[in-house]
Input
Amino acid sequence: MKFYIKTYGCQMNERDSEAAASALAASGHEMVQDENNADILMFNTCSVRDQAERKALGKLGILIKLKKQKPDIIIGVLGCMAQRMKEQIIEKIPHVDFVAGTDQFHKLPEIVESTILKRKHIVAVDADSEIIENLSGHLNSKNQISAFISVMRGCNRFCSYCIVPYVRGRERSRDKKEILEEANMLVNAGIKEIVLLGQNIAAYGLEGRGQPTEESPFAELLQTLSGLDGLLRIRFTSPHPQYFNQKLIDAMASLPKVCKNLHLPMQSGSDRILELMNRHYTAKKYLSIVDSLKEKIPGMTFSSDIIVGFPTETESDFNETRRVMREVGYDNAYIFKYSPRSGTKAAEMKDDVPQAVKDERNQILLAALDETTGRHNKALVGSTIEVLVEGVSKRNSERWCGRSSSNKVVVFEPLPGIKIGDLINLEITRATAMTLFGK
Ligand code: SAH
Ligand code: SF4
Ligand code: F3S
Output
């Protein structure tokens, strides 16, 4: 049958969707890009903010029309919202045929098969904490140079605002050998860049130890993967600052394939708020990681996740966030307005920062970010940057784009002979806050 899968949420979800699609393709189904041509429609959902859930629920709601026209189509809800809401999804939206939680991706071909045969609702949401294998399938597409590998599942951090540990379960690291096999397979298929994924990725391989240690099995994994011939670049997301130890700093500094860009979620610059968030670090500790990396790796860039309007956040807490942001000088940041998630610790606190204040703080940080990236990008005009060629630019088909190790997109007019996946040097001729132009 023909299936369509739409993904909401984070890169881990994107990766799960790809693995699920690959498993379904291997069991004889065919993936289509247009939902109107599909017999099976699946939605891999996110629960991290209320807005993320509302978006998916809205989409599912309007599918009732399609279901009336074509009663044989199958609608499935996967992932984090499926795990959180379980059978409530079908109670709310009875035209959904199956619900499959975050630990059920490997069983998707079976679940789809049973739905087709039995024609009754299926809710598969067991937290099968042992199973992290059988999720290594990728969709091979020509012209693709970058691929995700999930190296761990789940999260044990329980940051007070966050639903992820409840919907994704406990941390489980994959076997290094299996990761290496997956990476090898990708490189042999032409992949040049691997992005390693995990919600608390710097804690890779530390299960059962609870607290951060001096060791870093994750740094060792970076080192091992660096040895793969043909692999040009390694990126990873997201490390928790508490686990970002000296070994990992040294690994980033000494392994040239590991990119000069780090997504290091700060969340808040106020120590009081960080404590309420259960983040286990201070602004000072956060900045010390950034400073060591800046010192050891010239040209290093940073990005972040920041929450504004966490319960009790005052103007002075917010100013601390602005200060840390200024000191780091982010080149990218995702700024979120706090949204209470029921079941989390923070949801027991009053959501007392008014929406208008959240909006205003959000705007202030976005403007600050724009100013910094504009300034950083302008400073690059005249310099030469090595980029990995990604292909035709989305905005203008005459132009191509490439990405620097520091995660800057550079747009250029390609000379004959240049291919996707080449590493080329570009002289930066012009810059905006979003994009660099080079020749
Ligand atoms: N594991 C990653 C984050 C995953 S969730 C990490 O710790 O870095 C992605 C981001 O969503 C978080 O970093 C946080 O900034 C934001 N987020 C999570 N829960 C939220 C909530 N309840 N309200 C607003 N933003 C939230
Ligand atoms: Fe959520 Fe914190 Fe885990 Fe990130 S580390 S997924 S923010 S609980
Ligand atoms: Fe969302 Fe689940 Fe990712 S809640 S952010 S899709 S882990």
